[in-house]
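Contributing new records

If you add data, match the layout below exactly. Sequence lines come first and carry their own label; structure lines follow with theirs. Keep one chain per record. Anything else will be rejected by the validation script.
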Amino acid sequence: MTYPELSRRQDPHSFLEHYLAAHPEDALTVEDGVPADQGVTGLIYELAARGRDELLYCRKVDGVTVPVVSNMFASRRRIARMLNTRPERLHEVFAARAARPLAPRFVDSGPILEELRTDADVDLSELPMLRHFASDRAPYITSGIIVAEDPRTGVGNLSYHRAMAHSPNELATSLHSRGDLWRILQQYAELGRPMPVAMVIGGHPLFMLAASARVGYEVDERAIAGGLFGESLEVVRTPKHGIAVPAWSDFVLEGSIDPAAHADEGPFGEFSGYSSNRSTNNLLTVTAIMRRRRPILFDVEGGNTAEHLNLARIPRESEMAEKLKTRFPDVTAVHYPTSGTHFHCYVALRQRRPGQARQVMLGLLGWDPYVKTVIAVDSDIDLTDDSAVLWALATHFQPHRDILTVDGLPGSPLDPSSTDDGTTSRMGLDATRGPRFEGRRIEVSPAVLDHARTILTTLTSPGGNL
């Protein structure tokens, strides 16, 4: 079916088709059957163990009736391609596009309207869900983006929330971040009525990135999606509540969350690398299922995988880089390493006066409630290389003078080391050389390195001896 009024740039299927054709080396298509119980996770973990991060396209997943795409956000290079830029400009381009939001554009038709089931015909057992970890309580929706609107202003909010089936028409979910969606829910509690919501499962990767954007309560992430696309997000209204959802969605669940209704969910494999039981145990009652005629499940691999972390940290890094460079012009780069989940951050700067690194670290520790440890290094250190940062820490850092700590601050509710009330302590490590540092880095001349590459290329080519 064709939709002449719509832009195919917003179609996740078109994105997938184009990416597979343009970058076959960066995608792995699996034709054989993959188990729905941890099968996709197993492939992703084995790829990571081999230093690989390809987009994973499983055409047949046993027990699931649709193809599955996962690991889409595992590579910074791939995310940069989504934004038509290079990895080194990823933060800059994301921030610039997000700063130019475009209001959504309502359309009359779209693939998401191809099939509709309501009320008694709703059956969540037909919805594709995967079990990602043996420790998970059940198969989970991991790419579910809940859309809700402020009851007074109508401003929308997008946010990710894990969800498992509780009954044929109910999902148990958690609003553990207690962010803007939680704030909207409290307003509905004051009004004495359930909060209307829609859950978009997957979608175009730029829409999915927009749902992770770090913006104020008054900013609608659907407009941020428009900024990332460079054109207004095309939306249709859900059948009962009229919530604006992407016309190119694969699945949309419409329903409501009653502030007084609860259902147990969890444990679930979270970004910390631990299975988390911490949950608000909210209940989402589904009254309609909208879907494309031939959908794909765009899954997000959970746990402390590169995909799960990148999806959240690219917007976070972009925000922090912009804030820090605006306030502290000598900051040159910001990076959240996979090894530190969301709790570590590296920052590079040109330190021109004593105390400058400490000031930058205090800014980061104050702005980002998830970060517990910041390591500041000089601008010649590659922040994407853990070993380079640890080398700087080993050779430039003295604990008696280069450490700062602060405690009693709000932290992540999913940090297994945080206190019962969710507070945490934070630390800054100044691994810059400092004004009185003496030492010269060892060097190998560029000409020698070029000659070595030539030799190794010859030896590793057919007929070589290495």
